[in-house]
Amino acid sequence: MMAALTSKQITELADQFLAFAKAVGNYRIQHDEELNPSQKKDLKSYHKQLLNRSDELYTTSAALVMDEIETSIESIKSVTSRLEKTYQQLQNIQKAIDIAAACVKMGVSIFSLNTAEVSQSLSELAGLFATSKNIKPSKKKKA
């Protein structure tokens, strides 16, 4: 049997997509001089799509149905946490674009109510992070 998302769960998902969007937008701004026009266009498009998904989640009144919703939300939270911590340090621009695209794909899969696609999207994001060895060391902040 499939469980329906609660309003709280929908809001949590919207929060996660807003965090994805902020990370993509910040990356695009911070790496503006390094990006070619096509990369700028792609990241701008993904940023806008993620913001739109977040807005749709905040405003939707439709019941979303997913199997094992708690596990999916925890997985999304885990991916978001990792994204927020490492996305800005990515040195590989294509990897940053791939991660943004995978976040958008996950949003589409959630709205399709296809639990297999949600699971696949989460796996794809996890795989992208697993291969993200090209990360700048984080700078320690001075007090």
Could you explain how this protein is built, in words?
The protein is mostly helical. It has one domain. 70% of the residues lie in helices and 3% in strands. It is built from five helices and two strands, in the order E-H-H-E-H-H-H. It has a two-stranded antiparallel ribbon with strand order 1-2. Helix 2 packs parallel to helix 4, helix 3 packs parallel to helix 5 and helix 4 packs antiparallel against helix 5.
Helix and strand arrangement:
Blueprint: E1 3-4, H1 7-30, H2 37-59, E2 65-66, H3 69-86, H4 93-111, H5 115-130
Antiparallel strand pairs: 1-2
What are the salient characteristics of this protein?
single chain; 143 residues; mainly alpha; 3% strand
